[in-house]
Amino acid sequence: MSYRILFEYWGRGLLVAAFISAIAGLLIGNIYVLYLIAGICLILSLLCLFIGRCILKEGV
Q1: C-alpha pair distances (Å), 14 with each of 6, 9, 44
Q2: Integer Cα distance of 22 and 37 in angstroms
Q3: What angle do CA 46, 52, 58 make, to 5 degrees?
Q4: For 46, how many CA atoms within 13 A lie in the half-sphere containing its CB?
Q5: Which of 8, 9, 30, 54 has its CA 20 to 30 A from that of 18?
Q6: Alpha-carbon distance 5 to 11, whole Å?
Q7: pLDDT at position 1, please?
């Protein structure tokens, strides 16, 4: 398995985790920890997807 595919899987997984955490935060109420987790997962997922795209362009 190449690093590009690994980073894309991690990016998609973290994006799903961010979405689920944000929805749970909306359903439960004023639990800002879930929003913080959603924000961190979103930033990490975008970073992983960006790294995966850069590796794809370089062809490593």
Answers
A1: 12, 9, 7
A2: 8
A3: 135
A4: 7
A5: 54
A6: 10
A7: 58
In contact, 38 and 25? CB cutoff 8 Å: yes
Q: Are 35 and 23 in contact (CB under 8 A)?
A: no
Tokens 């990016």 -> residue: 11
R_g of the chain computed on alpha carbons: 14
Closest C-alpha among 21, 12, 23 to residue 45 = 12
Please spell the DSSP secondary structure of 23-47, one letter per residue.
HHHHHH-S-HHHHHHHHHHHHHHHH
CA-based nearest residue to 31, from 42, 22, 41: 22
pLDDT of residue 47: 93
Please give the Cα distance from 14 to 35 (Å, whole number).
14
DSSP state of 7: H
